Amino acid sequence: MSSDRKKACANCKRSKVRCINGQEGSVTQLGELVDGKPCERCIKLDLECGWQPAKKTGRPVKRNPSIDIFAAYAKGVPLIDAHGVEETHDLVYYAALSLAGNLSGDDTSANRRMMLELADEAITAQRYDLRCVVGLIYTIHDDYGRNDITAAQHHLSYVCSVALGLGLNTPTPNIDPNDRLSLIYGRIWWEIYLVDVLLNLSTSSQITRQIPASTHIDVDMSAVATETAMQEAYDGRIKAALLLSECTRQSGRLNFERVEALDTMILNLASTTQSRYHNDPGSAAREMNLMSTMMLLASRVHLHRQAWFADMAFNFESCAFGETTSVQEMLQMGCDMFVMPHCNDLDASLSRSLQAIREASDLMLQLIRSDQVEQSQSQLVPCHAPPHWPFYTCCQLVAAYGPVLEIALWNASRDQALQDATPSALSPSSENGIWRTRAALSSIDVSHATLSQYSRVWVVAQKHRDEVALCRNIVDRCGPSGFGGLSGFGGFGL
């Protein structure tokens, strides 16, 4: 009787509805494989009917190639492995397929539709299990990559409330100890905290912070990972997230001690994460160390920009250009925004901040270039772009800030020299400034080129690429600093 009992496909079983006219794959007495038949509901909804494929004893089951692509992506957000993804066709599974489809360029509409349906079911049913939480984290990555702000806010609000309700930020969370994911509950918490910070910053606060800044965070890091390299990588990832949050906080006034202290903390930690990234190429934690380093360098740019140039035409706290400042206004503001009181301490502090922004931007661009070369030579999965998470495109945009600032400062000093009618206005130093500016323009072009590649994967990268293009267009209007040129340079083509 039990052998003839009607079975349901994974989709219908999960949705607790009757599975009609579906059939599971089987093996005949002659050993022939008979494929399963999709049920009426899956056909109607254009879903992949989740019958397990029939197999003979000893014959391996071929893995979905999309899972291998997701496994490469998950190195940067290591919450579940490929085997764990395929255990059941649930929210985690469809979020993995959607992310992998983005990277490979496949049509992901059906997988994303299923992912969103399962996410809504989980929220409606008020599910609190950790696997559902992990699925929502990856869903939020997909939401942001597609620049779907509404969906990202919806899913973030729920997953943060679940995390706080379960007490994942405490040493004694209210979770099932028999759940395998309970061993990494601290890691799950920090990934939620990280997307909460990054979504708020990268959307001009359109997505509001869900975890209060005053939330007590007391997770024993020894329980996060058993592998030393992974534990160290998460330590750097967590501290990078905390520093990014602090460096982008509006302090209300210029506090030299705060800026210098945070700058020192960033440099100390970045030296560690960068060293781990370069010195351990075979480590599973290498991707995390790269992203931590990029976040720290972006934090340094934000820290010093906000201290001195908060009103400079771009709102790089949110990785976006200010909507209220026109091109003409920006060009007119070029000189005045850099005028500071004549004070030795102020001049010295400003000089240090300018140098910090240059160094951070240059190092970010250097890492972007080396990563592009490395990924193109060693890519094991067919992707349109390296399998980094979509927040990486924010860092590529922030990397353009240093060259932009370099150009703006040179324009300001040049304009001042012309107004003063000094003999040095057209001196060799001016010519050197033009070459420095052209080098900066080339760096801006690096950001634009890599963002163009990532725009084939993430919709949000298209937005960032267009902002870099806008910046490039503004610079080209600046006359001698661009390619309009002084006498003798007008025909110079690059």
Automatic annotation (TrEMBL):
GO terms for molecular function: DNA-binding transcription factor activity, RNA polymerase II-specific; zinc ion binding. SUPFAM superfamilies: Zn2/Cys6 DNA-binding domain (SSF57701). PROSITE patterns: ZN2_CY6_FUNGAL_2. Residues 8-51 form the Zn(2)-C6 fungal-type domain. CDD domains: fungal_TF_MHR, GAL4. InterPro entries: Zn2-C6_fun-type_DNA-bd_sf, Zn2Cys6_DnaBD. It comes from the Eukaryota. This is Zn(2)-C6 fungal-type domain-containing protein.
